[in-house]
């Protein structure tokens, strides 16, 4: 040990030019500390050199992390004015968006988009069978409506229902498992694409226009119970000429039911353009004696503000209101429709490039420093992972057993016999 101290002391003496005669480890440490104090730069200068990162090699991309304080927390945007029918004032032409809201809306819409693209893939692999109507392109409608009402409010829609099933609280895993007819699906694998349900969500209805009078009935229940709730009753432009819609309008207006009738006008009813199917394409005026709004359905903020306005109208006791959301679907009417026999690929691409609801929100947030490109990329990776894991579950979960076939037919508990394919085949419904 003494020889080691002598060697280190002599080396320190040569470096510093000072007489160093340490006899113990403690004395040597003191000499070393004095040397460091003499040769080290001043503390502030040292701190500055430490804060400067080393220069990367030429051609290297540098990712700089940013704190939440660097982002704009809230921005007020100008939005498109709504066309009005029998209304003196409409929704505001400005919409406030917080950073948290923007990220939430982006995640919701991007999740719906990725989920629908995965459903398209599973259908083409013949893992999903039967009817399947996809919602990609119309995500701003589902996200904006949900942002404009309360979770305790009620919603009923047609067969293009995957997006609303998600916004009403059902997981991607349960939706995809329902599409593949598995036990873990939201309707236990027995409903499929058109029949998914959740608390305060009544489907998913396969009969064109049939959900609209049902929505009026739900609104009647809200009025009867006096709970200050309302019902959003959705339908497409293809169903807008159904007689039962006008019967529902009439009854809702007579009784001043708290019902928002919403026409999602995606420009085509199956393969027929609205101009060829309807003598009047002003669907927001179809209620005649009921006030109406025509809204940009590709802008989530426009949809949100219009829905808030319509909800306030209903809750104030003024009765029903009609909303027309001008939107667009990227896929065909259903998976059996390629979607390009009655419209051009250029038309679809033009809408994608100019009016895509997800791109529009993302560009707004980036241009106003409300989020970073890296943040959106990270979110996209998380969403892709969630959808992939959901697809794995939807293809590996078992199908429901035959014994479950007749359960959940009626709400009442006592078991009952259900006739099978002939009078001698009896099945039991136990729940």
Summarize the structure.
The protein has helices at residues 2-16, 25-39, 43-51, 99-124, 139-148, 162-167, 172-179, 211-225, 243-255, 274-277, 300-315, 345-355, 357-367, 373-396, and strands at residues 74-78, 83-85, 94-98, 154-156, 231-236, 259-265, 268-269, 272-273, 292-296, 321-326, 416-419, 426-429. By secondary structure, it is of the alpha/beta class. The strands form 4 sheets. The chain has a 6-stranded mixed beta sheet, sandwiched between helices. It has a two-stranded antiparallel ribbon with strand order 1-3.
Supply the key terms.
single chain; 431 residues; alpha/beta; six-stranded mixed sheet; two-stranded antiparallel sheet; 14 helices; 12 strands; 42% helix; 12% strand; globular
Written account of the structure:
With 431 residues, this protein is α/β, with parallel strands linked by helices. Helices cover 42% and strands 12% of the residues. The chain is built from 14 helices and twelve strands. The protein has a six-stranded mixed sheet, with helices on both faces. Strands 1-3 form a two-stranded antiparallel ribbon. The longest helix is centred in the N-terminal third of the chain and has 26 residues, at 99-124. The protein is globular and about 105 Å long. 39% of the residues are buried. Residues 35-54 have low confidence and may be disordered.
């Amino acid at each position: 040990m003494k020889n080691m101290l002598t060697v280190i002391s002599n080396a320190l003496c040569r470096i510093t030019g000072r007489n160093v005669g340490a006899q113990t480890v403690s004395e040597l440490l003191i000499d070393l500390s004095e040397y460091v104090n003499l040769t080290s730069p001043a503390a502030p200068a040292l701190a500055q050199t430490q804060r400067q990162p080393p220069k990367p090699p030429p051609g290297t991309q540098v990712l700089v992390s940013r704190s939440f304080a660097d982002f704009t927390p809230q921005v007020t945007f100008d939005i498109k004015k709504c066309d009005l029918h029998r209304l003196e004032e409409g929704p505001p032409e400005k919409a406030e968006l917080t950073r948290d809201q923007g990220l939430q809306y982006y995640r919701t819409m991007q999740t719906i988009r990725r989920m629908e693209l995965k459903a398209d893939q599973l259908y083409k692999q013949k893992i999903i069978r039967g009817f399947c109507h996809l919602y990609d392109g119309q995500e701003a409608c589902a996200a904006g409506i949900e942002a404009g009402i309360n979770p305790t409010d009620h919603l009923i829609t047609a067969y293009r229902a995957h997006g609303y099933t998600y916004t009403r609280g059902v997981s991607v895993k349960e939706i995809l498992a329902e599409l593949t007819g598995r036990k873990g699906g939201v309707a236990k694998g027995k409903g499929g694409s058109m029949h998914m349900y959740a608390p305060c969500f009544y489907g998913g209805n396969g009969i064109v226009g049939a959900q609209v009078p049902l929505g009026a009935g739900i609104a009647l229940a809200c009025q009867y119970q006096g709970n200050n709730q309302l019902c959003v009753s959705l339908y497409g432009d293809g169903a807008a000429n159904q007689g039962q819609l006008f019967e529902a309008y009439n009854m809702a207006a007579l009784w001043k039911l708290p019902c928002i009738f919403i026409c999602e006008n995606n420009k085509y009813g199956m393969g027929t353009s609205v101009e060829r199917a309807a003598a009047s394409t002003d669907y927001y005026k179809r209620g005649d004696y009921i006030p109406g709004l025509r809204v940009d359905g590709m802008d989530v903020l426009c949809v949100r503000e219009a829905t808030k306005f319509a909800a306030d109208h209903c809750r104030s006791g003024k009765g029903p209101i009609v909303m027309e959301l001008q939107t667009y679907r990227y896929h065909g009417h259903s998976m059996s429709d390629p979607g390009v026999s009655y419209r051009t690929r250029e038309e679809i691409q033009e809408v994608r490039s100019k009016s895509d609801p997800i791109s529009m929100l993302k560009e707004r947030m980036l241009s106003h420093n409300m989020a970073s490109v890296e943040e959106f990329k990270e979110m996209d990776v998380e969403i892709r992972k969630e959808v992939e894991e959901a697809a794995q579950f939807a293809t590996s979960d078992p199908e429901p057993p035959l014994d479950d076939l007749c359960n959940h037919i009626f709400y009442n508990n006592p078991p009952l016999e259900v006739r099978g394919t002939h009078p001698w085949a009896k099945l039991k419904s136990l729940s």
